[in-house]
Amino acid sequence: MLHNVLHLGVDLSRVEKVVLSHFHSDHTGGLLLLREHFRGANENALSKVYVASGFFDQRQTDAGDFVGPGNFSRAQDFKQAAEAQGIVFIEVAGPTQIAPKLWLTGPVPRVEETYNGPQGLFITSNGQSEPDIIMDDQSMGYLTEQGWLMTSGCGHSGLINTGKVLKAIEDAPIYSIVGGFHLWQADAKTLARTADWLERSGLGLMMGGHCTGIAAAETIADRLNLPRSQISHAAIGSVITPDLKIVRSSVE
Question: What is the CATH number assigned to the segment(s) 95-252?
């Protein structure tokens, strides 16, 4: 991640707040290195980190091996290493405004979709081992004139569930969705249901990357008849203008 940031010429020393979408290491593994690199220019750089409740729950495999955030086996080891660098964690239990028009969903109730993600990890709750369904998954919404700009890391809570949380905050269209939505293994029925809900919710722009799947994104875009100027694969260096136009889909 640091390599990509430096290649793009982005000065993250000006950024003091960070949102972690969920505990998976491919979404948390760069935090400590970025903090270490940029704190010299600004002691508060990347120092306030928002996570959803359950982020620090200890996961383990069926064989009993521990799995934690940031390439640490134990969640508390990651937390302590981050705090040693001056990072302060804010645990979000529900929809939370962190800046004007900018909201975090916090943990997303599983209403339409129960779970959208990988299998094989377990957490212990009330003395019982239960499959981990990543209840610490959260997304971010920015309220624009056209409606919500919804940004997800992986969307393990389900795209529809996540969109409903934002619409409960402000009943505006889900105009644009950006990020990972874990639809690469979704069947035709799931894609059709998701596309239909997005159409009813006013979707006008889609940049699906990471775990979305190119075929899944194109299926949704075709079903909604989105113009090609309003759909792109979200890649390193992708740019959206303040008026929600895609001007660059990757590093050029």
Answer: 3.60.15.10
